[in-house]
Write a structure and sequence with these properties.
Length: 460
């Protein structure tokens, strides 16, 4: 099976493919054989794209192409499905159920399918504009926003109109043939525009609406909501999910994170302490990134993130010793150099704020030099600064105010300067962070807290 793709059931992408499903690549061809009733679906979501391929069907061949499908439900009714079918599969089929049409929604302008021969297909999707060519000639040119009619599902209920369907989602190929393999070759997919945060939220919401009982879909619906800064709504989603899944480490971890975003540190600590308790003795797992690094490789784990966020919330509440203990648990759970750097950069401050020697947070020069950093460049360079390897100017160079990256570097440097006795420079930097940087950045939140602690008392 091609990397980056997964197998699912024909009628619901959230379900497993039937036993006996077989998709494989042989001599440059993608073959769908074995049990009928499956999709080969991309793990990545797409918004605007061009897709080209050739396909060959048997006499009773039935296939299709999923376009912008959410990770749950039937692409034909919850996303889009471009139909690919031999005319003999179902002679009484409606025009919108034939090759080149959007299944049961839009019929092709002309029928150019060539039975039992290789057919060339090109699809271009840009916003609401969908175009399809078959064997070099246009067969569909649709404005999806103009399609207001509902579409009948197989059970007779009404599916959403095309204009209401997500504008971003997965791409996939279907196997529903009755008498042999569906064959594809010459597949070329070109992304024209990645999904926006709003489109990713719509995709996540669509999956959650289909399966609101699913913990994973609830988590992602909340995460996508939070990425738009809608933290109260995200917390509401997690809270509803916790009513169904009271022992969910993931829901507690993410609600705790967003309590931090809203400066509700006590609520965050309650959630994250509960998540920490639930995680003990259970297998950790890699946590997928909602905003991946350039390499597309997730670097953190669920349990590690629980301890990391718990430590931060405790630090922000001034519970320094408890924060130190949580940082140490996060340190044990660090599985790579990115998470190691992030934890050590905060542990360094935790120790120094308590008046303890911070030598544990220093790494030997050879280890610092050979680190593989994919995302936490700010924390790595803070450790280089702690080790005397770079100057303050080098730490901040190329990172103007107004970003999470600047907030991380500037807060880390300011706190270190204050602990070293240069309070005036540190205070000035903290004020700049609070005034200019991303409000939800941990550096910004920590800067607000530190500024309040350093305010002179009325008696002063």
């Amino acid at each position: 099976m091609p990397a980056g793709w997964s197998l699912t059931a024909w009628s619901d992408l959230a379900e497993s493919a039937p036993d006996g499903t077989e998709w494989r690549v042989v001599d440059g061809e993608l073959l769908a054989a074995g049990a009928r009733g499956s999709w080969l679906i991309s793990e990545q979501s797409y918004a605007d794209f061009e897709l080209e391929f050739e396909f060959l069907l048997t006499m009773l061949g039935n296939s299709g192409v999923a376009l912008r499908a959410p990770p749950a439900g039937d692409p034909a009714f919850d996303g889009l499905e471009l139909q690919l079918v031999d005319l003999r599969y179902r002679p009484e089929a409606l025009p919108s159920e034939l090759t080149g049409g959007l299944y049961r929604a839009l019929a092709p302008e002309q029928q150019l399918y060539q039975p039992e021969r290789w057919n060339r297909c090109r699809i271009r999707a840009v916003g609401a504009h969908l175009q399809v060519w078959l064997n070099g000639s246009p067969v569909l040119d649709a404005d999806l926003d103009a399609q207001a009619a509902t579409v009948p599902r197989h059970d007779g209920s009404a599916a959403s109109s095309l204009r209401e369907r997500p504008r971003a989602g997965r791409i996939g190929f279907q196997h529903l043939s009755r008498d042999g393999a569906a064959r594809f070759r010459g597949l070329r997919l070109r992304e024209l525009r990645a999904p926006s945060a709003e489109e990713r939220l719509a995709e996540a919401r669509a999956a959650w609406l289909i399966h609101p009982e699913r913990e994973d879909f609830t988590v992602w619906y909340g995460r996508r909501m939070a990425y738009l800064g809608r933290y109260e709504e995200a917390i509401g989603i997690y809270t509803a999910g916790l009513q169904q899944h009271p022992g969910s480490i993931a829901l507690l971890r993410h609600r705790g994170h967003r309590f931090i975003s809203l400066r509700r540190f006590g609520d965050a600590i309650a959630d994250l302490e509960r998540a920490s308790e639930l995680a003990r003795g259970r297998q950790d797992e890699v946590e997928a990134d909602g905003m991946p690094n350039a390499a597309g490789i997730p670097r953190s784990t669920l349990h590690g993130n629980v301890e990391y966020h718990l430590a931060l919330a405790l630090l922000l509440e001034g519970r320094l010793h408890e924060a130190e203990l949580a940082w140490r648990r996060a340190l044990v759970l660090s599985t790579n150099d990115d998470t190691l750097c992030a934890v050590l950069a905060w542990l360094h401050l935790s120790l120094r704020e308590q008046g303890k020697a911070a030598f544990e947070a220093f790494l030997p020069q050879p280890q610092l030099d050979r680190m593989e950093i994919l995302e936490n460049f700010a924390y790595h360079e803070l450790l280089l600064y702690d080790a005397g390897r770079i100057t303050a100017a080098e730490l901040m160079r190329g990172h103007p105010a107004g970003s999470v990256e600047h907030a991380t570097r500037a807060y880390g440097l300011a706190a270190r300067l204050i602990l070293s006795g240069d309070e005036s420079t540190g205070l000035r930097m903290l004020e700049e962070v609070v005034a200019a940087d991303a409000a939800a950045a941990f550096g910004t939140i920590a800067a607000e807290v530190l500024l309040r602690r350093l305010e002179p008392s009325p008696r002063d």
